C-alpha cells in the first residue's frame, strides 16, 4: 500500500508540474526587490494593522514570511501552534496583517517560506497539503521552497569525467517542486532560494572559488526542464561563502542556467564567514547595475535585522539596505521606513 501511495503521489505531482509548466510565470516588476520578514521579531500586538509586517514599505515587491517546518501540522482555523512559524501573534492577527498589507500594496507578492537553515530536517515528512491550507487561510500568494540539505552529495564534473555536476539532491528538488505544484498550481507563486555556489562547477565557472560541497548543487535548473518551468523565481543566497566569493560573478553563473526572475541576495552584517557585506553606497550602486538587466532583482535577508554594533552607512540594517536598493533602482517612495 505504501509503495502504491508513493507512486500515485509522484504521478500526481509530475502531472501538476507539467500543468504548471504550461502556465506563464508570475510577472514581477523590472527590476524587483525582495525581503525576508523574520516572524519571530514581530511586535506582539492585538491588531494586524499595528504589526511591523503590515507596515512593510510598498517599494518592496516580494515579501517572504519565515519560516514554517516542512513537516508542519496544520488542520485549519489559523492555529499556528504546530507549524513552526514563530510569530508572537495569533494566526487571525497575522492574517489581518497580511490583508492590511495587501490592501495598501495590492501588487506586492507575499509568500510563506518553508524550511530554511532552522528547519533542515523533516523534509522526508514534507506535507504540502498542510502547507497549501495554511497559505490559503493566511491569504498569501504562494510559497518560498527553502530546501537547504545538510549534505547535497555532489559529484564534480572532473570526478564523473563529464561536463557537469550531479547531486543526490537533484531528484529531491524535482519531487518537492512537483508535490508543491500539485496543491499550489499557478497563479500561486513558487520561489526557491539557491545556494551561493550552486551554479558553479561547469563551463566558464567550473573552477570558480570558493568551492565546497554545495558547488553545482543547483545545476539541475539547466537539466530538469519540468521542475525549472514550474518555478517562478530563483533567489541566490549570495552570502556566508567566505572572502573569496564574488556575488556578481555568482549572479552571472546563475543567469547562464536560468532565464527567469533572478534575485541577488544580501545579508544584514556581519557575515558569519567573513565575506564582505556592502555598505549603503555599494548597495545603491549594485542595484543601479542590476536594474537594466532583464528580470533581475535584489533580495535582503532580513527586513527587520540590525547589526549588533548598531546600524550605520557601513553596517546597515535591513531597512536601510532595502531603501538603498529602492534608490539604486531609481524608484519613488524610498523614504518609507520600517517601524
Protein model, in words:
Helices cover 31% and strands 15% of the residues. With 339 residues, the protein is an alpha/beta fold. The strands form two sheets. An eight-stranded parallel beta barrel has the order 1-2-3-4-7-8-9-10, surrounded by four helices. A two-stranded antiparallel sheet has the order 5-6. The longest helix is centred in the N-terminal third of the chain and has 21 residues, at 2-22. It comes from Tistrella mobilis (strain KA081020-065).
- The gross shape turns out to be globular
CATH-defined topology: TIM Barrel
Number of strands: 10
Q: Note the run of SSEs as H and E.
A: HEEHEHEEHEHEHEHEHEH
Signal peptide: 1-22
Protein name: Glycoside hydrolase family 18
Organism: Tistrella mobilis (strain KA081020-065)
Keywords: Hydrolase, Signal
What topology does this entry show?
Layout: H1 2-22, E1 32-38, E2 62-68, H2 91-104, E3 109-115, H3 128-138, E4 142-146, E5 154-155, H4 157-160, E6 166-167, H5 169-183, E7 189-194, H6 225-229, E8 233-236, H7 247-257, E9 262-267, H8 280-290, E10 296-301, H9 318-329
Parallel strand pairs: 1-2, 1-10, 2-3, 3-4, 4-7, 7-8, 8-9, 9-10
Antiparallel strand pairs: 5-6
Amino acid at each position: 500500500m505504501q509503495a502504491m501511495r508513493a507512486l500515485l503521489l509522484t504521478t500526481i505531482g509530475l502531472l501538476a508540474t507539467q500543468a504548471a509548466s504550461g502556465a506563464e510565470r508570475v510577472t514581477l516588476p523590472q527590476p524587483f526587490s525582495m525581503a525576508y520578514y523574520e516572524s519571530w521579531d514581530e511586535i506582539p500586538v492585538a491588531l494586524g494593522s499595528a504589526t511591523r509586517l503590515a507596515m512593510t514599505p510598498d517599494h518592496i515587491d516580494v515579501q517572504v514570511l519565515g519560516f514554517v517546518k516542512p513537516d508542519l501540522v496544520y488542520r485549519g482555523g489559523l492555529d499556528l501552534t504546530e507549524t513552526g512559524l514563530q510569530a508572537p501573534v495569533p494566526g487571525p492577527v497575522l492574517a489581518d496583517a497580511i490583508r492590511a498589507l495587501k490592501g495598501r500594496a495590492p501588487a506586492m507578492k507575499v509568500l510563506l517560506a518553508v524550511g530554511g537553515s532552522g528547519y533542515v530536517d523533516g523534509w522526508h515528512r514534507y506535507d504540502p497539503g498542510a502547507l497549501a491550507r495554511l497559505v490559503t487561510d493566511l491569504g498569501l500568494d504562494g510559497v518560498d521552497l527553502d530546501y537547504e540539505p545538510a549534505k547535497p552529495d555532489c559529484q564534480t564534473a572532473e570526478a564523473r569525467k563529464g561536463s557537469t555536476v550531479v547531486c543526490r539532491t537533484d531528484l529531491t528538488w524535482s519531487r518537492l517542486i512537483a508535490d508543491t505544484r500539485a496543491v499550489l498550481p499557478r497563479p500561486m507563486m513558487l520561489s526557491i532560494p539557491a545556494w551561493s555556489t550552486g551554479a558553479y562547477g561547469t563551463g566558464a565557472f567550473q573552477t570558480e572559488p570558493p568551492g565546497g560541497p554545495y558547488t553545482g548543487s543547483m545545476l539541475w535548473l539547466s537539466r530538469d526542464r519540468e521542475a525549472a518551468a514550474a518555478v517562478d523565481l530563483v533567489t541566490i543566497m549570495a552570502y556566508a561563502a567566505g572572502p573569496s566569493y564574488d556575488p556578481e560573478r555568482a549572479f552571472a553563473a546563475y543567469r547562464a542556467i536560468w532565464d527567469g526572475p533572478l534575485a541577488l541576495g544580501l545579508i544584514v552584517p556581519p557575515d558569519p564567514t567573513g565575506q564582505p557585506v556592502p555598505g549603503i553606497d555599494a548597495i545603491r550602486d549594485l542595484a543601479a547595475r542590476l536594474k537594466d538587466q532583464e528580470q533581475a532583482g535584489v533580495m535582503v535577508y532580513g527586513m527587520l535585522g540590525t547589526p549588533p554594533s548598531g546600524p550605520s552607512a557601513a553596517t546597515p540594517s535591513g531597512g536601510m539596505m532595502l531603501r538603498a536598493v529602492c534608490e539604486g533602482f531609481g524608484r519613488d517612495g524610498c523614504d518609507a521606513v520600517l517601524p
